[in-house]
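User: quick one - fold this with J2J bound?
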Amino acid sequence: MKRADVVPWPAETAAAYRDTGCWRGRGMGSRLWEWADRWGERTAVVDGEHRLTYRELAERADGLADGLTRCGLEPGDVVLVQLPNCWEFVVVTLACLRAGVVPVMMLPTHRERELGSIGAHVQARALVVPDSWRGYDHQALAERLAATLPGRPRVLTVGDHVRAGNVDLRALMRPPADPSVTRARLDTREPQGSDPAVLLLSGGTTGLPKVVCRTHDDYDYNIRCVVRACGFGPDTVYLAVLPAGHNFALANPGILGTLYAGGTAVVLPSPRPEAVFAVVAAERVTATSAVPSVVLSWMEHVATHDVDVTSLRHVHVGGSVLAPEVAARIGPTLGCRLQQVYGMAEGLICYTPVDADEPLAHATQGLPVSPYDELLVVDAEGRPVPAGGVGELLTRGPYTPRGYVGVPGTNAQVFTSEGWFRTGDLVRLTPEGAVVVCGRVKDLVNRGGEKVSSAEVELLVQELPQVAEAAAVPMPDPVLGERVCLFVRLHAGRSLDLDRVRAALTRRGLAAFKLPERLVVVAALPHTAVGKPDKKRLAHLVAHLVAHRD
Ligand code: J2J
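Assistant: Sure. Structure tokens for the protein plus J2J:
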């Protein structure tokens, strides 16, 4: 990634964020020893039997920060990190922050297509993967990619079966022989506040990779705000079950927010209720976060099993639409308070307050976490709507960057000339300033919180020889909220079924969660006035088909 690919805030805005104290002007890695000096022997991270104190975490992260340098990685170099929720993920992330190496947070479900296109876009210098995970050989995937990506990135493997030629990452995580010497050396090379800290993947609405560069200054501020909004402190025991590479579980407040507060972050690689409630009871978990579909499965489990949730105080729910009726049942069922969250990798985070009254907690998606967040609701022509009206949400602020990495054309469309980010979400604001999500104008499918770009699916489908025209739209689903439905018009005399589409896209390396789950072959697709497939009509059509069980 070239530094010029990262869009900075305008100089005077940046100066204002520094003057107000939002931006500290320091690398996030410097937090590591602030924590260790303060909370040294307290438990920082729990992963099954594995427990790390704050001191051990700092030492291991420093050991790895040094190790990354020995592998030839320099400050500003980008690495793709594809790990399940495990203690090594936390060490890798902190080591990167300490060394100024920039991790791209991939998901374990990503495959060739995602890793390949993102890896090429950011010129990744290394790929961090598990040896294998859920029966899939990630090391082999990384090796194939490393052989084809420009710059031939190194493969850094976490696991017991590191193949020759790859780097054994666990071996690099050993505490240094003399931690104080390593600490002092790394201190002198601390990244600056304006340097890239992490790269997050946008929900994405185009076929192109959309990568959000979060700086040390802005991400550090984001985390401080969210920790405050959620009342996290040293007595917090947070359980991370959503993929840790997601902004939500990583930093809102998530794992990093827990560490900022001096609490304990428990990591679990699956949101399955059996595993979750065993850990909630064993570790006396006080807070966790989930997307609505996951929280529904938890509520069903708790209603039918004898589980101990007495430690649980807060559950954060967001990422996709939560019906107010469901919201009202969450607290009583799980024996804790609900905090709704509306957030995005691009920045803006809204939380309902810990002590919100019922209308606020159940029927809104929260208030912005920073007083410097700016929110504007506009109509289709970009004019502000009257107070309380529905429109597209635009936002800017001290932790909402002004552009994606290396895509000036997309940025000119997605960001206004005044630096507002067009969220693509339709919202209204309550008189208190809380956001209520009412829909969206962007072209994606929100599958249980995982965002699928319709264009990405359509571009691949259009390459199939049978297909003349394709449109991917959301289809309503009682569990996940939405799934991908694919409409196609075929060339004369050709046929196609869902299994063949899924197999073809899988062969092209597309992640499984993006695969269409229903195929509708039509003689002609409806079009809008500008000649594009009329997605609104198609979405209505499939909603009708689902409602009538056709
Ligand atoms: C409806 N839609 C929502 C909500 C996000 C915390 C929480 C979530 C994300 C996230 C995140 C929603 N109701 N409560 O990064 O830190 C949809 C919107 C939004 C998009 C962003 C975090 N909360 N959404 O979901 O980058 O459409 O971030 O623009 O994955 O999810 O997706 P993403």
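One thing worth noting: Residues 403 and 411 are 6 Å apart (CA to CA).
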